[in-house]
Design goal:
Number of domains: 2
Number of strands: 12
Number of helices: 16
Largest sheet: 6 strands, parallel
Pfam family, one: Glyco_transf_4
Strand order of the largest sheet: 9-8-7-10-11-12
Strand content: 15-25%
Order of helices and strands: HEEHHEEHHHEHEHEHEHEHEHEHEHHH
CATH architecture of the largest domain: 3-Layer(aba) Sandwich
Protein name: Glycosyltransferase family 1 protein
GO molecular function: glycosyltransferase activity
CATH superfamily of the largest domain: Glycogen Phosphorylase B
Domain Glycosyl transferase family: 174-327
Domain Glycosyltransferase subfamily 4-like N-terminal: 72-157
């Protein structure tokens, strides 16, 4: 969402894009053919590249690109640039500092080798998705707030309210075997997302609403065995797996209610996409999520299963509340755009 907008907004800048993979790019983006875009494709084995970068500080990516003035990391990762290069780094969150138990050994090793604190200190400017993440960098990494720019993410125009009788929605229901009345969770299956809590809350909700199903959409991530065990002992819970990008907006519109009580987020796109789609949202009252949803969703304590279940029942039962959440959610989502995100990102890059 960001890169093509940055390139199109700044035709006077020469953009050198570093791509390291043994395979060619699967998608052929039209903006890669722009005269000011240069894709530099290297085929280093990623493990060797990461190990060499972390232990030896080599190779310098700017040298592989033939020399640059500034380097933009859209996410901190294992990679080094020369000392004279101005660095702009985006931090989406540092959840691993708060909940290390939620991450696999592989993730912990990657985080250690990435040295995010070093990246934050070295950077000329930092971009974050929320004030919550900015406060985390200031508090945990001792970064000066003046160095950090909060730039909210956007929501694509394709996420909008639709009639449940639309043919695309009917087709998506058939494709993913989605029943008629559903509570939806959308995201990677990993401990931080609190999916076990969602399932337990749904089990209580279903005692008074047996006609509903809980749909868990998204790819399997890590440490998901607890989720699978909880599904086995709970009726009407369906895991539909990864959703094709072209189907995402229609899957949201299949839902009657969206539930996302994550323990920690740096931003939280799924609640915003659900609101844009006109679906009432329940989300957490912690980390960045209150910034995103404002007063247009119901916020709960993610550790309180009874509270989550109670709010689910109330929204489904109270038609006036249901309607107001739909209307307010759509209005709130309109405040976030990828164009605005890209424009502000470009300002930071130019100022660095």
């Amino acid at each position: 969402n960001i890169l093509p907008r940055l390139i199109e907004s700044a035709p006077d800048i020469e953009w050198y894009l570093f791509y390291n993979d043994r395979n060619e790019l699967k998608k052929k983006y039209t903006w890669l053919n722009y005269p000011n875009v240069h894709l530099i494709h290297k085929r280093w084995p990623n493990r060797l590249f990461n190990l060499s970068s972390a232990l030896l500080g080599w190779p310098k990516i700017d040298n592989l690109l033939g020399g640059v003035d500034k380097f933009f990391f859209p996410h901190f990762f294992v990679g080094e640039v020369s000392k004279n290069i101005k660095i702009i780094v985006t931090f989406h969150d540092i959840s691993f500092k708060y909940y290390p138990q939620f991450f696999s050994i592989k993730h912990k090793i990657w985080q250690k080798f990435s040295r995010p604190q070093k990246k934050a200190i070295q950077a000329s400017r930092l971009i974050v998705d929320s004030h919550s993440t900015m406060n985390d960098l200031v508090d945990l990494y001792n970064i000066k707030s003046e160095k950090v720019k909060v730039i909210y993410l956007g929501v694509d125009d394709k996420f909008r309210a639709r009639m449940k009788t639309d043919k695309e929605i009917v087709q998506v229901r058939r494709k993913y075997n989605i029943p008629s009345k559903i509570i939806l969770f959308f995201g990677t299956t990993e401990p931080r997302k609190n999916i076990v809590g969602v399932i337990k809350a749904f089990a209580e909700f279903r005692k008074l609403n047996p006609e509903y199903h809980l749909i868990i959409a998204g790819a399997l991530g890590w440490k998901y065995k607890g989720v699978l065990k909880e599904i086995e002992k709970t009726k009407n819970v369906l895991m539909i797996g990864p959703v094709d990008n072209k189907d995402r907006e229609f899957v949201y519109n299949c839902a009657d209610l969206f539930v996302y009580p994550s323990f920690f987020e740096g931003f939280g796109l799924p609640p915003l996409e659900a609101m844009a789609s006109g679906i009432p949202v329940i989300t957490s009252n912690c980390s960045s999520l209150p910034e995103v949803v404002g007063n247009s969703a119901i916020m709960v304590d993610p550790f309180n299963i009874s509270e989550i279940s109670f709010v689910m029942k109330e929204i489904i039962k109270d038609k006036k509340l249901y309607k107001s959440l739909r209307v307010d959610g759509i209005k709130r989502a309109m405040e976030f755009s990828w164009d605005m995100c890209a424009d502000k990102t470009l300002e930071v890059i130019k100022e660095a």
